[in-house]
Amino acid sequence: MIVVMKASSSQDEINGVARRIKESGLKAHISQGVEHTIIGVVGQALAEIQDMLQLLPGVEDVIPIGKPYKLASREFHPQNTVVKINDLSIGGDKIVVIAGPCAVETEEQLLATAREVKASGANILRGGAFKPRTSPYQFRGLGIKGLEMLAKAREETGMPVITEVMAPSDVELVSSYADILQVGARNMQNFILLDEVGKLKKPVMLKRGLSSTIQEWLLAAEYILAQGNEQLILCERGIRTFEPSTRNTMDISAIPVIKRVSHLPIIADPSHATGKWYLVTPLALAATAAGADGLMIEVHPNPDLALADGAQSLTFDNFQELMSQLAPVAQAAGRKLAIPSAKVKP
Amino acid sequence: MIVVMKASSSQDEINGVARRIKESGLKAHISQGVEHTIIGVVGQALAEIQDMLQLLPGVEDVIPIGKPYKLASREFHPQNTVVKINDLSIGGDKIVVIAGPCAVETEEQLLATAREVKASGANILRGGAFKPRTSPYQFRGLGIKGLEMLAKAREETGMPVITEVMAPSDVELVSSYADILQVGARNMQNFILLDEVGKLKKPVMLKRGLSSTIQEWLLAAEYILAQGNEQLILCERGIRTFEPSTRNTMDISAIPVIKRVSHLPIIADPSHATGKWYLVTPLALAATAAGADGLMIEVHPNPDLALADGAQSLTFDNFQELMSQLAPVAQAAGRKLAIPSAKVKP
Amino acid sequence: MIVVMKASSSQDEINGVARRIKESGLKAHISQGVEHTIIGVVGQALAEIQDMLQLLPGVEDVIPIGKPYKLASREFHPQNTVVKINDLSIGGDKIVVIAGPCAVETEEQLLATAREVKASGANILRGGAFKPRTSPYQFRGLGIKGLEMLAKAREETGMPVITEVMAPSDVELVSSYADILQVGARNMQNFILLDEVGKLKKPVMLKRGLSSTIQEWLLAAEYILAQGNEQLILCERGIRTFEPSTRNTMDISAIPVIKRVSHLPIIADPSHATGKWYLVTPLALAATAAGADGLMIEVHPNPDLALADGAQSLTFDNFQELMSQLAPVAQAAGRKLAIPSAKVKP
Amino acid sequence: MIVVMKASSSQDEINGVARRIKESGLKAHISQGVEHTIIGVVGQALAEIQDMLQLLPGVEDVIPIGKPYKLASREFHPQNTVVKINDLSIGGDKIVVIAGPCAVETEEQLLATAREVKASGANILRGGAFKPRTSPYQFRGLGIKGLEMLAKAREETGMPVITEVMAPSDVELVSSYADILQVGARNMQNFILLDEVGKLKKPVMLKRGLSSTIQEWLLAAEYILAQGNEQLILCERGIRTFEPSTRNTMDISAIPVIKRVSHLPIIADPSHATGKWYLVTPLALAATAAGADGLMIEVHPNPDLALADGAQSLTFDNFQELMSQLAPVAQAAGRKLAIPSAKVKP
């Protein structure tokens, strides 16, 4: 942490700041500049000390140094984290594709989608049973019935399933059905929920909040890691900006930034990022070229009849087309597509 | 809802859209323009139908008409909602001031603050017992001990207390201590929590999410109202923008916008909006002039020793100064300051 | 400037950075921390050196210290700048009100508006002769004819006039008519234009860019000041955010921030900030309570027939009402309204 | 245009709006809904009429239908525009790479860079002679000397050159040297400059403004097209968001959106979008995969000694590496890299 003194600060003020730093059990390195005196704070400095120093007389600014997260940082953990689900690896050299409907609606809809996306090359089945909805009057998911349908689809196709958990009290229930638990964008800073999924021994996918910085996202990841769960996957799904032609703006640079500062795998969700089916394929290809470890794609048998997010869902044909374009881009990026899981049970 | 057809759409496509609208139990009014044919959808149109229509051949855009919230709208409830806590009214003709420390730290700190802010004219005591923190390594509050200290401060000063609830499973506990439950900005779309506080018969204060539109905020309010809890107060606390010189940007226009489209009382939190103590007073005055029903102000005996948000906390003297400047601005805005509650118990 | 070395940086890398700093004619203060070594750069460090240091091996971050503007800073010029137009002062203890139509349309429209706003207490007449318009198909102003009408209105009412200049080549022309030249939000970083108005001996009002930080705004002001023109007024007119219910979001905190870091007067334009006439008065009062030195308000005889920005213009009655509410708020803020200028010619 | 009447509007108010629409020479189609009456406005409706209707009694909202730009729209011009510079095509089936230093500094620097980027496969040389700089104290370019150096580099290498023009009065001068004139992000809404470059018979590249919507960008393009210059190229270079880890956020979805709604070629500038050299290659690949027609890349012989934007410049080696990764991604996207121009003169 560095304290920048005002140009007009007195020697007494400088000494006062240095004294307070020492009282906090830290060391103070004073460096006299042409205009500003700067005081380096040496030691394990808490965020609260930053606030405190900010308020002392003569202080212009307090600048934190280094990253506030540790377990999520590449410095702490130089090797890529690879999350394993059965024979599937996320974060290794293969691109993993998660596909399925936004919401589980009926057994028929889910099974048909599961079969088709698997046939086209998807590795993991997605489907929401508990749906966070902006309005209380929208369809909020089938709940436990939806979880049972997911389990059935897994049994039939051998695909692992990912589904969202919204309530801390549902974590146990959802984890008894799902292979990966998803924490949604609106819950990225639901710290109670983060603590709960952190206690699991199961993979968790943490979506980036609509207006979260990459640093806040990694601090949310830190909550989960700090509880002992290291099977963590990040998912970029667009941030909120002023541009109205897409639902969100996919922050494509977040992918190489995360790869640089963290060891966690990162996948991209172009369906939620854009909100428009005809933008999903170009953004899926872009994310892959930028280094994403996988994709999450909404697919629906009849998008125009979907109970949620139809406008951004691909038809089976469109998804197949996406997969056929994805393979050469993955190869150009030095990766391969993961092979769809064989059926677990005969 | 209005469907705008592409300039190039065929008569068959127009008929197809009209047919689908009728199949959904709605009426279609076709209006041929110079460039675009427009189809009005008459009836109770769900959001899902919007997505569905968007996907039909020949459709350029689907535009929702009217507001997606109902109970929160002024059209539904033309009179101002006035929330009562004992003899205090929020949303009436008096300005209510909530003050206290960001986090409850010790009994001494809380009681000293309570006495001082009451003496300066504050009406309600604030203090966090459960604190949402960006990093897992920050002070997360005293929990139930903090709630007990708040109860003690209420007993001594007669001031009602407001405190945040983060977990759905804590709603009952917190409501057994607090006079008003606060739902924080990061939980504005924690729909499980909204449902829970909606079942209470106690006032709730709903803070605006960091990147929530006013419409999303009112839809979150709708969750609470839809469960039957009408004792609801909104709180503007700044939105996330690109400007780095304040922690957030207080959206001052949200105050008159809310007053126009909704009946709910709205208060302003300049401490969180700015993150800097020297901006709190000018923004408190501005919010009052713009029509806010009250203010929420962080005050700490020693801001430079606070365990949370010290940089934005006022000292006792600064708070007293704020209150003395507030009275004439309230009067200029045609309001008065509410009188501090008399002690409940003798 | 401070160079933060990576936790993993070697002694050679640290020495390399220090050597390069010295080669640039600056001094390097090395400070060994627990995790990070920090190197203070002492001397007049240019922005280019920041980029250069960022690229050296072992460097994690380079943090500039202090403000990049000088002439615009309060440290350089502790007293408030007061801009004088005849007997009127902007930036002193009186609140100045600028009012008039968005665009000059006809002599009749302008004169009627000028008389009415003066009668209600306005001090300066505004009116656009050159209009920046998002679309090439919108009304772009009357040009020189508009300037002549402004001159005529000044002659008749004695009010100084302010009007926008868009082209560097028009600066001389516009300054021969106007008392204050306005540089619009879209031209805040039109550096050629800034240089030109900086050469004038006439007041300039610099609007904040739609997505400009306060620091960039003051750097744009620095362009004008650096050319020798110190008669400079800033104008906050809203920034671009994700919120759709207003055209822009008025950054009310910019007012006290500017007052703290700069000596320049600042006025607020709630008409452009909101885009909605019914929000103009509450935001005008808020800006005044927050410490603005004046207001700029769009007024039109028949807003529903205006050629530009009718939706945000006040009628004469609404403007009169605003002025009657403004006086007590100004007084509560320790200010008074400036007295409308007497007619210059008899 | 559609007028949405308030739920509470009277028949008189509805008739009043319809009458005013007819008085404006347009037709009104009234459609009675369950809650809202909607009035379709048929005819060529100007933006001013929208403002006017908004103000009439009983009106809740006025919604424009269709796009406000015409010449830039794909509906008006279904085929892709292909801009030709000698034997090079931008917007065809080949990916074009523009490379060179941010600013022209010396003849030596420019020539060395030109030779190297050509050898690595670049097609066009970039270099700024007039530089828009946030601060008046930064290096603002060599001006005409820089233009002469660009001409010399073209003569030697045969590469066409692109350079920025900032002042309307410089358009003639710059166009006498450059093959493509660049209008920078800060000048995207400098309408005087747009008019001037619109009168040229030379290719223009229009960068997206830092906080411009895609629609505003296409309206700026419309200014140029409306003056008769159809040799227009768009350039996405990142938009301003709250995320601090990159200088801007590259809006990757803008590429397929532009391809859908417009016929103009679009290239991507990952150097300015990110501000960090190590993010340039992944974003260049992503933009290509998303369908961009070309790239603009900053390259410098010694980025750590550059006078402008060194932190985002590639070294020669890094650029060569980028080009070698680009070829397979272009191919995967169904494109090829354009072949570097042969030397014009022997």
Structure description:
4 copies of one chain form a homotetramer. With 346 residues, chain A is an alpha/beta fold. Helix content of chain A is 34%, strand content 18%. Chain A contains 11 helices and 15 strands. Chain A has helices spanning 11-23, 47-54, 107-120, 144-157, 171-175, 191-198, 214-226, 254-261, 270-274, 277-289, 316-332; strands at 2-5, 27-32, 37-42, 59-63, 83-85, 88-90, 94-100, 124-126, 161-164, 180-183, 204-207, 232-236, 266-268, 294-298, 336-337. In chain A, helix 3 (107-120) links the parallel strand 7 (94-100) and strand 8. The first copy, chain A, is elongated, with a radius of gyration of 23 Å. The termini of chain A are far apart. At the C-D interface, helix 2 and helix 7 of C face helix 2 and helix 7 of D.
Task: Describe the structure in brief.
Helices cover 34% and strands 18% of the residues of chain A.
Descriptive tags:
homotetramer; elongated; eight-stranded parallel barrel; 18% strand; 346 residues; alpha/beta
